[in-house]
Design brief:
The protein is mainly α. The chain has four helices and two strands; from the N terminus they run ααααββ. The longest helix has 16 residues, at 50-65.
Length: 132
């Protein structure tokens, strides 16, 4: 595909098809040596924190931008991502007739990034850390 045609298409699509938080209006950089055609920065109040800004980027801004036809990828930079750890009680699993694979599957379905699969088993029969 011709770069200039792709640039024009993306520019028109971003002006017409995106609704960003705070009434922000997207602009496209004319040319980039990295192959990217658009860069932006998510900013917020000082008390908001970089982890929360990254969460807004990953869960709101990037998802909305990806709904625009022709947007191939969103590359996020900066800010730590949130990580959730789940401790599974084997007695409650048994009481509710739920298996560890069912828990991992449910966590994966609830998280667009999927389960990290770095499950660490403690010396007891409980899972001490499932990174999501």
């Amino acid at each position: 595909m011709d770069y200039n045609f792709a640039y024009a298409q993306a520019s028109v699509a971003m002006q017409q098809n995106v609704s960003l938080p705070g009434g922000q209006v997207p602009n496209i950089q004319a040319n980039s040596s990295t192959g990217e055609i658009y860069r932006y920065q998510v900013v917020g109040p000082k008390h908001f924190g970089v982890t929360n800004l990254r969460t807004v980027q990953d869960w709101i801004v990037a998802r909305r931008l990806l709904t625009i036809p022709g947007i191939a990828a969103i590359n996020s930079w900066g800010g730590p991502t949130k990580e959730f750890q789940v401790e599974v009680d084997p007695h409650k699993l048994e009481a509710y007739s739920v298996t560890v694979p069912q828990i991992l599957n449910a966590l994966g379905n609830a998280n667009i990034n999927g389960v990290d699969a770095k499950s660490t088993l403690a010396s007891s029969p409980s899972i001490s850390g499932v990174s999501v």
